[in-house]
Design goal:
The protein folds into two domains: about 400 residues, Alpha/alpha barrel (Glycosyltransferase), CATH 1.50.10.10; about 70 residues, Maltose phosphorylase, domain 3 (Sandwich). Helices cover about 40% and strands about 15% of the residues. It has 14 helices and 16 strands. Helix 6 crosses helix 7.
């Protein structure tokens, strides 16, 4: 539980916790956050994984439930109608009449290109957070099947990129998180032919290979660790070579089926920062542009820069603001030590939440912020939405610079910052191994100090780097 010195800030965190609890369903496999109300009140793979990543530092049991559910329904066969292949992780499941009668494929649908690498990355992140070797051992065959699918898809194009192209006309045309039909395009606005390699997906693949290499090393499998580590570096090099736009100092949105760049500046590139793929120099350029007026509206990061051809602040994916997207970008900025920028982004999201009655919607419009104006609602956005609610805690973790090492059973805090207007935060009952501790952050002049409650000193190591 998180408490701060700010009453209104506490109200936001309380509403956020309540919304996540509202959307979480206790399934046979454990807790699972359904995506959103009213349109997506069911289990979505991508949404569940990202929500679990957002909450992992506070509530690792949510990640365990998500992993167990997705492992149970991992594909074991090839189905054109369902966009399924062996090893692939489910995109969504529905029980409506058209799905039951197989008029639509969404009874159990696998047309999400990013869900599988995100699933593997969550498994590594959960293991790193908890040190739970036993659970990873039970998941191992599933994780290996997922990575085998990634490698097989990568072998089809020769570059290792994980791509998508829907198998049947009934499936989703675009299969990343920006899945509306017009969300992926060339710089002239035309729709490219597939298979499509999305830039953020290659980042997730990179992180998944790195995670599997680390897990294999923990298991003593030196050969597999070396193989997956090599795959991660291969993807990194391919992304740096093929996605980078030297004339714009930014990564392209995608590589199309003809091997050409979709030379567009979009928020997707910020997800590469989250997984640590770019060099420090290129990360600095991405950070500067994410925070510029073209991508940052003043309320959050737009999905598309406002000087790109199809920009529309009232669109679903081409200029709107999605809180989870801004949070992932913020976490990426923190990874490259852009902590001041993270604090500013969190302040923007908090101020937006206040104007939305403490509940961040699925998305809102990307109009430029002006003095006295409120953010403009997107008329049919889900409210509440799990990964929008979880964004508050992902951004707070990015501000505080906190990471829990489950293997060493220790808390690491690096260059902590507090949100604007907040002088202290206490995280109560933070689980570290078998222990539960209260962790305090206190503003002292121009510094933020971090310490354990005196009752819990000595229970777990606390390593603070200023």
């Amino acid at each position: 539980t998180v408490f701060s010195s700010g009453r209104v800030f506490n109200d936001w965190l309380a509403r956020t916790r309540a919304d996540i609890a509202l959307l979480t369903t206790d399934l046979e496999t454990g807790p699972y956050p359904y995506a959103g109300i009213p349109w997506f009140s069911t289990a979505f793979g991508r949404d569940g994984v990202i929500s679990a990543l957002q909450m992992l530092w506070l509530n690792p049991e949510l990640a365990r439930g998500v992993l167990a559910f997705l492992a149970r329904y991992q594909s074991t066969e090839t189905s054109i109608f369902d966009d399924a292949e062996p090893g692939k992780i489910m995109h969504e499941t529905r029980k409506g009449e058209m799905a039951v009668l197989r008029e639509l494929p969404f009874g159990r649908y696998y047309g999400g290109v990013d869900t599988t690498p995100l699933y593997v990355y969550l498994a590594w992140s959960y293991a790193d957070r908890t040190g739970n070797d036993e659970f990873v051992d039970r998941m191992w065959d599933s994780l290996c099947a997922a990575v085998a699918w990634m490698e097989e898809v990568g072998a089809r194009n020769g570059d290792g990129f994980v791509t998508y192209s829907r198998a049947a006309d009934t499936g989703l045309f675009n299969q990343g998180w920006k899945d509306s039909a017009d969300a992926i395009f060339r710089s002239d606005g035309t729709i490219p032919k597939g298979p499509i390699a999305l830039v953020e997906v290659q980042g997730y693949v990179f992180a998944a290979y790195q995670g599997m290499a680390a897990l294999a090393a923990k298991r003593g499998d030196v050969a597999k660790a070396a193989h997956w580590s090599g795959m991660a570096e291969r993807i990194r090099n391919a992304v740096e070579t093929q996605f980078w736009m030297p004339d714009r100092n930014f990564y392209a949105l995608a590589i199309d089926g003809e091997g050409k760049q979709c030379a567009v500046r979009a928020s997707n590139a910020g997800h590469l920062l989250y997984v640590g793929l770019p060099s420090a120099q290129r990360a600095q350029s991405i950070a500067a542009q994410l925070l510029s007026g073209h991508l940052n509206s003043g309320w959050g990061v737009r999905t598309l820069a406002d000087d790109e051809l199809p920009f529309n602040p009232m669109s679903y994916h081409n200029g709107s603001i999605w809180p989870h997207d801004t949070a992932i970008c913020a976490a990426g900025l923190a990874r490259y030590q852009e902590r001041t920028s993270v604090v500013k982004l969190m302040s923007s999201m908090f101020e937006a939440a206040v104007r939305f009655h403490m509940r961040l919607p699925e998305l809102f419009c990307g109009f430029t912020r002006a003095i006295g104006d409120a953010p403009i609602a997107y008329p049919v956005a889900c409210l509440p939405q799990a990964w929008s609610a979880g964004s508050a805690f992902m951004m707070l973790q990015a501000c505080l610079g906190i990471r829990i090492d489950g293997w060493k059973r220790e808390i690491n805090v690096e260059r902590p910052r507090l949100p604007i207007g907040i002088d202290n935060i206490v995280i109560r009952h933070l689980a570290v191994g078998e222990a539960k501790v209260d962790l305090n952050f206190q503003r002292v002049g121009d510094r933020v100090v971090c310490y354990l409650d005196e009752r819990h000193e000595g229970l777990v190591p606390l390593v603070v780097r200023s």
